[in-house]
Amino acid sequence: MSxxxxxxxxxxxxxPSAPFGIPEVTANDxxxxxxxxxxxxPQPDVYAMADVAGCVVKELECEGTAGPAVGEAQGMxxxxxxxxxxxxxARANRYKxxxxxxxxxLEVTLRDPAAEKLVIPLWGRELKRGSMAYRQVMESAGTxxxxxxxxxxxxxxx
Length: 158
What we know:
By secondary structure, the chain is of the alpha+beta class. It has helices at residues 75-84, 86-96, 132-157; strands spanning 2-7, 10-14, 24-28, 33-37, 45-48, 52-60, 100-101, 103-110, 118-123, 127-128. It has three helices and ten strands; from the N terminus they run ββββββααββββα.
């Protein structure tokens, strides 16, 4: 998911992956810039490293919890809901426990208070918290976050 390499002064912080909706993030230390190229965009959006104020790894909470979960509906209402859409009831129960997240993303805050926070998707599929896949995604997210933290510290040191 993430890799830090050096190619002509440009570091690749996040490798793109179309199947997972992951954009490309690079940094140019010589220019003091970093870029975000979202999938489908031929040209990246370029930002100054000095503009990065903060960066946080966040989990996307699961949606689709509408509808009765087991124990919430009573009698025939519950039976009707299960028979009508068993997958929806199973998802609602699974998500209700908090054992799953719907994805992981990085939220980058810029120094300009008028600027919107940048959302960089790192994983766009359901993950079971505590699973090996979840740990690997969170480790990769930490690596990408560390690159942004390095940008912030570099600006502070001058």
